[in-house]
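Q: Convert this sequence to structure tokens.
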Amino acid sequence: MPQLSAKNRHRVSFTLNGKHTSIQVEPRMLLTDALRHVVGATGTHVGCEHGVCGACTVAIDGLPARACLTLAVQVEGCDIRTVEGLAPSSDRLSALQAAFRQHHALQCGFCTAGILMSLDAYLSTSPNPSEQDLKEVVGGHLCRCTGYAPIITAALEAAATLRQEAPHV
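A:
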């Protein structure tokens, strides 16, 4: 990795939700701050800033990652996906988002973006999860309102929907 000057801003280019993005950041700027304050992608929430709560979870090159533990300069050339990139279009929710809506799997919504990102990544590689599998995935997220049961129900329904949709994609 090149040595960066703390006194200078540095250009970082990456793909964000399918669109090329290039921003100027200080070397110490966190990805959460770059996404929210430089790019304007405010769906990524800042919670504990220690990687514990999961509210800041995004997908970096297809893998879930805590944006509060990632420096913005680390995503040079990466493919970043945030909750804003989950819906297939502006007028249609993803299967996971629709299931969350149907099963009331959110209340205040603060944790929801991070949970959606982790579940989306998991379901893309594990199309037939068990309830226990999903509990382990959401176990890395702190939700103080919903109580996880509707989240698991929604994730199971979304997985079933995705399995049915897979041949049509």
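The first strand starts at residue 10 and ends at 16.
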